[in-house]
Specification:
- The complex is a heterotetramer, with 2 copies of chain A and 2 copies of chain B.
- Chain A has helices at about 15-20, 20-25, 35-55, 70-85, 100-110, 130-135, 155-165, 225-230, 240-250, 255-275, 305-310, 330-335, 340-345, 360-375, 380-390; strands at about 1-5, 65, 90-95, 115-120, 140-145, 170-175, 195, 210, 280, 295-300, 315, 320, 345-350.
- By secondary structure, chain A is an alpha/beta fold.
- In chain A, strands 2-8-7-6-5-3-4 form a 7-stranded mixed β-sheet, with helices on both faces. Chain A has a 4-stranded antiparallel β-sheet with strand order 9-10-13-12.
- In chain A, helix 7 (about 155-165) links the parallel strand 5 (about 140-145) and strand 6.
- Chain B is an alpha+beta fold.
- Mean pLDDT of chain B is about 90; it is low at about 135-145.
- Chain B has helices at about 5-10, 60-70, 75-80, 85-90, 100-120; strands at about 25-30, 35-45, 45-55.
- Chain B has a single domain (about 5-145), classed as Sufe protein. Chain: A (Alpha-Beta Complex).
- Chain B is globular.
- The chains are: A alpha/beta, B alpha+beta.
- Chains in contact: A-B, A-C, A-D, B-C, C-D.
- The interface of B and C includes residues 144 and 146 of B.
- Bound molecules: pyridoxal-5'-phosphate (PLP) (2 copies).
C-alpha cells in the first residue's frame, strides 16, 4: 500500500508503541493513588509533560493533556468565551478552520457571541493586518489555525500573535497539523493557547494536549476529579500520554533533514502532476505550505471516484471534499479559496509521511493520468468543455 | 463501504458515452452537490433500444448510472418508468445510506430524458412529471474531516 | 504485589491488549476515510458498538464512544441542562456522586440551575420515594449513580427509573463502577443515559461511552467533525474502542461465577477484619453492595498512614478519604453517611479483582492488625479514648 | 511521593509516646483536616530534656512530628523557637507541596506546648504568641478520586 493520507492520521511508530506497552498491563496504577506502583505512572505523565513543553517552548505546567485536538479546540474556545463574557462577545477566526474550531464558533454564535470569519485569499492565507482590522473593543479571542489540514497553507502566526499581544487579546491557534512538522515557540510567537493531537505525528489516536499560557484563566471543559491540576478531569490515559510524548520527541528529531526530504518529494509530485495532467491546479500557497501537503483540483471530475480508482491500486489519498465521508457539501476550505463547486469537488489531497519514497511517487504519477483521463471521458462537464473549445 | 457489485459497475461501467442524435437527453444534478448525470436514450417503437450516460460524481453515481442504463435497455417506456431508484440500488446489492441519493438522481435523469423525448414528440407519458432539480435541497448531513 | 484497588483502575487484560495492538501500527487508517484500509477500522468500531449495546440491552446506534467516564458524565448532565433549559432548571442527584457528576452539577448551579442533592441514609442509599418527593414541575434531569465508587453501595436504579418514567423526566446514571460487574438492562430499568469507563473493567484508560436512548435530544459536548453520527467529534480512538468492547465482553463472561467468587472473598475479608480489629466499621450497605468492595473505618487512625504501611508490604489499597491525592478534605461520601471527620479520615477501601486470592486476603488480614495497633499507639485520639474508658 | 527520609521517619518514628507529668503539652490540628498533633515537653533549666508526640495523621504528619521532636531535644527554649517548619521539612529532604501544612502543624504544636509551659510557670517566651487553630482555614485544594 502507498499511504498518502498522513494528514488524516498516521500509524503509531514501533518505538512509540514500545514505550506505551508497559503502561497497559504492568504499570497500570491510577496516577492519583498514593502507593508506589501508581507514583511511577505519575512520574511518567510528568516526564511526558516536560517533553511536550520542551518542544513548544513552554513550561511543563502550561501543558494539559486531552483526548485529542477536538477537545483541545473546544476547551480553548468555549473556555475563553465563558471566562471573558463580561469583557466582550466577539471572536475572530478564519473561514478555513477545521470543524473542531468552526463548530465551537458557531455554537458560540447561538449563545449570542459574534464571530468574524476572516476571508482567506486565493492561497488560503489571512494577514495580520486583516486580523488587526477586525479587532473591536469587545474582541476577546483570536483563534486562527497554524496550518490548514486540507491545503497545508501556513498562517503568519508570529505576526498574528504580535497583533494579539499589542491589543491584549487572547490568541489561540489550532496547531494540530503543524505540531511535529514545524518548529514552534509559543513565547516568541505570542501564542496563549495551542491545540495539538497525537495521532497526527505517529502517536496514538485519542490523545492530545492544550498549551495554556501560565496565568491565563481558562475554566475546565470537563469537570470532575482533580487531575491535570483540576483543569481537566478524568483518569489520565497514561499509555496514551506516554505515546504522545514519545512520538513528539521522535517527530522533532532531525526535523530539518526530514522536512527537506518531504519537501523534495512533495515538489516532485506536484511538478509531476502538473507536467502530466492538463486542467489541474495546486490548491494552497506554493511556499507557505506544510512540507508534506499536495492538494490538487482535477477539473471536470469528482474526487471520490478518483480516490476509489487509486484505492483499487493500493494508493490511499483523501478527497479535498468532505463528500466522501458522509456529507455532500464540498469542502468549505476549497470554496473559501474561490474555487467553483465542481473544482472543489474534484480535489485530491496527498499528504506524505516519513516513509514515503520517490518510487511511490512514480507509481502515483504513472497511475494518475489514465485514471483522470478515464473519469473525464465519463464526465458531462468535460464533454461540454471539449464541445465549447472545439 | 461499497458492495462488490457497486465496485464492479464503477470500475468497468457499461454504457458510458454519448448517443449521437439521441431521441431523448436528460441532465440532472448540480455541481454544488458534486453529482451531474446526463442520460441519452435511443427510442424506437416505444422501446429503449440504447441508453448511454455521462456522469460527474462519486463512485456510487457512476455505478448507478451504469446500472440504470443497463436495466432499461430493451424495455418499453412503460416498463422503464417502473425502474425505481430502489430497484437500481437493489441491483447493486445496496448502497450506503448517504449514497442513496445517487440512485434517486439516476431515476431522475431517466425521467428527464424521457420527458425530453415526450416533449420532442408531443406525447404524454403516463405518470411522468416535468423534471425538478431536487438537488437544491439542503444536505444536512454533517461533515467529517481529518 | 497484592493489588486491591480495582475501583481506581484495572490492568488491561492480555487478551484486550492483543485485540488492540493491530489498530496501532497496522490498521491505523482514519475510520472516516473512503479507502479500504480505513473501512476496516470503521467496521471495528461498529462491531465494538454492537458489543457494548448488547451488554446494556441497548441498540448499537444508542452507544457513543467518549474519552472516559468523566466526559460521558459531563456530556449527559450539561447536555440535558442545555437542551431542556426552556422546560425547567431543576436537577436531582445525590450527595455521594462522583466528582464527575457533582462538579458538573455545581457548574450548572453557577449558571442558574437548581440542584437537589438527595441525602443518602447511613448505608449510602437513596430511595425511589426520596427521588419522587424531590420532583418539581421544573425538574429536567435525575442523575443518580448506579453504584458508589467508595463504599460500593448499589442504588435502586430500576425503581428510580420507573419514577423518572412516570414523571417524564430524563434519567441519567453514572454506571462507571457498575458496568462490567452488574447485569444492566437500560430498557427494563428505564435508563435514558448511562455513563461507563473502560479502565474500570480491564479495558484501556481514556476510553468510555455514553448510552443515549434513541430519540433523546442531547447536543454535543465536543463540536467538530461528524464522527459518532455528529454527536461526538474527534478522530475515533480505534484501538481504545476495540479494547473497551473486548474488555466488556470478557467482563460479562461467567459473570455469576466471578461475582460469587468475589463476594466470597469480599466477605472473608470483611469478616476477618471485624474479627481481628476492634473499633472498626464497615461503610456502605452490607448486601446492596458491589461484589468487590470493602470499605472500613478504623477508628483513631488516619487512612493514608495505614495505606503507606500496607504499601511497604506490597499491598495497594486506597483511602476512603481523598486526602491522599492532594486534597485535605475528607471524603464527601463518608461524611454523607454521617461519619465524624476523624472516622471519615480513617477509612480504607479494598476493591478486589478477578485475580485476587484467599491467600492474599490472609496476608492482608495478618498485616492489618499490627499496623492498626501501631498507628493507634501513636494516636492522641486513641490516648484520649483509652483514658476515658479506663 | 515522599522522600526516603520521610518514609524512614514514618516507618520508625522516634519519640512516639507520652511524658508523664510533662512540663508543657500542646495539641493542634483538627479532625476535619485529618491531622491532630500533640507534643509533650520535659523542660529543665530552660533546656528541652525530652520531647514526645502523638499524632493522628498522614505519613507526613507522623514524620514531621518525629523529626521535630528529634530536632528540639537538648535545645534551649530560645533555640527551639528558631526551629521553623521549613527547617523540619528540609531535614526530611523536602515534603510534597500539598503536605507542607504538616510541617506548619509541627511548628505550631511545639509553640503550643511551649506556651503551655510558659503559662504554667508564669514566664514569657520571647516571640511566642498564643496558639491559634490555623486549621480552621479552608483547604481549597481540589480532590482527585478514582
Ligand atoms: C487542523 C485540525 N484541527 C483539529 C483536528 C481534530 O483533531 P482530532 O481528530 O484528533 O480530535 C484535526 C484532525 O482531525 C485537524 O486537522
Ligand atoms: C463512579 C465514577 N464516575 C466517574 C468516574 C470517572 O471516570 P474516568 O476517570 O474514567 O473519567 C469514576 C472513576 O474515576 C467513577 O468511579
Amino acid at each position: 500500500m502507498i499511504y498518502l493520507d498522513h494528514a488524516a492520521t498516521t500509524p503509531v511508530k514501533p518505538e512509540v508503541l514500545e514505550a506505551m506497552l508497559p503502561y497497559f498491563t504492568e504499570h497500570y496504577g491510577n496516577p492519583s493513588s498514593v502507593y508506589k506502583i501508581a507514583q511511577r505512572n505519575k512520574k511518567a505523565i510528568d516526564d511526558a509533560r516536560a517533553v511536550v513543553a520542551g518542544h513548544l517552548g513552554a513550561q511543563p505546567n502550561e501543558i494539559f493533556f486531552t483526548s485529542g485536538g477536538t477537545e483541545a479546540d473546544n476547551w480553548a474556545i468555549k473556555g475563553i468565551a465563558a471566562a471573558l463574557k463580561e469583557k466582550g462577545n466577539h471572536v475572530i477566526t478564519t473561514n478555513i478552520e477545521h470543524h473542531a474550531v468552526l463548530h465551537p464558533c458557531q455554537y458560540l454564535e447561538k449563545q449570542g457571541y459574534e464571530v468574524t470569519y476572516l476571508e482567506v485569499n486565493a492561497d488560503g492565507l489571512v494577514s495580520a493586518e486583516q486580523v488587526e482590522a477586525a479587532i473591536r473593543p469587545e474582541t476577546i479571542l483570536i483563534t486562527i489555525m497554524y496550518a490548514n489540514n486540507e491545503i497545508g497553507t501556513i498562517m503568519p502566526i508570529a505576526e498574528i500573535g504580535a497583533v494579539a499581544k499589542k491589543h491584549g487579546i487572547t490568541f489561540h491557534t489550532d496547531a494540530v497539523q503543524a505540531v511535529g512538522q514545524l518548529p514552534i515557540d509559543v513565547r516568541a510567537q505570542n501564542i496563549d493557547l495551542l491545540s495539538l493531537s497525537g495521532h497526527k505525528f505517529y502517536g496514538p489516536k485519542g490523545t492530545g494536549a492544550l498549551y495554556i499560557r501560565r496565568g491565563l484563566k481558562l475554566p475546565p471543559l470537563l469537570h470532575g476529579g482533580g487531575q491535570e491540576r483540576s483543569r481537566r478531569a478524568g483518569t489520565e490515559n497514561v499509555p496514551g500520554i506516554v505515546g504522545l510524548a514519545t512520538a513528539l520527541d521522535l517527530a522533532y528529531q532531525d526535523l530539518e533533514a526530514k522536512n527537506a526530504k518531504l519537501k523534495a518529494l512533495r515538489d516532485y509530485l506536484i511538478d509531476g502532476i502538473e507536467a502530466r495532467i492538463p486542467y489541474c491546479r495546486l490548491n494552497g500557497h506554493r511556499e507557505a505550505r506544510l512540507p508534506n501537503n499536495v492538494n490538487v483540483s482535477f477539473e471536470f471530475i469528482e474526487g471520490e471516484s478518483l480516490l476509489l480508482l487509486l484505492d483499487m491500486e493500493g494508493i490511499a489519498a483523501s478527497s479535498g471534499s468532505a463528500c466522501t465521508s458522509g456529507s455532500l457539501d464540498p469542502s468549505h476550505v476549497l470554496l473559501a479559496l474561490g474555487l467553483p463547486y465542481e473544482q472543489a469537488h474534484g480535489s485530491i489531497r496527498f499528504t506524505l509521511g516519513e516513509n514515503n519514497t520517490r518510487e511511490e511517487m512514480d507509481v502515483v504519477l504513472a497511475k494518475l493520468p489514465p485514471f483522470v483521463e478515464k473519469l473525464r471521458s465519463m464526465s458531462p462537464l468535460y464533454e461540454d468543455f471539449v464541445r465549447q473549445n472545439s | 463501504m461499497y458492495s462488490q457489485k457497486v465496485m464492479e459497475c464503477f470500475m468497468n461501467p457499461q454504457n458510458v458515452g454519448e448517443i449521437e442524435n439521441a431521441d431523448g437527453v436528460g441532465t440532472v444534478g448540480n455541481p454544488k452537490c458534486g453529482d451531474i448525470m446526463k442520460i441519452y436514450l435511443q427510442i424506437e417503437d416505444n422501446i429503449i433500444r440504447d441508453a448511454k450516460f455521462k456522469t460527474f460524481g462519486c463512485g456510487a453515481a457512476i455505478a448507478t448510472s451504469a446500472m440504470l442504463t443497463q436495466m432499461i435497455k430493451g424495455k418499453s417506456i412503460e416498463e422503464a418508468m417502473k425502474v425505481t431508484n430502489k430497484a437500481v440500488a437493489d441491483a447493486l446489492d445496496g448502497l450506503p445510506p448517504v449514497k442513496m441519493h445517487c440512485s434517486c438522481l439516476a431515476e431522475e435523469a431517466l425521467k428527464a430524458a424521457l420527458w425530453n423525448y415526450a416533449e420532442r414528440n408531443g406525447i404524454t407519458i403516463e405518470g411522468l412529471t416535468p423534471p425538478a432539480n431536487h438537488h437544491e435541497e439542503d444536505h444536512a448531513a454533517a461533515a467529517e474531516e481529518n
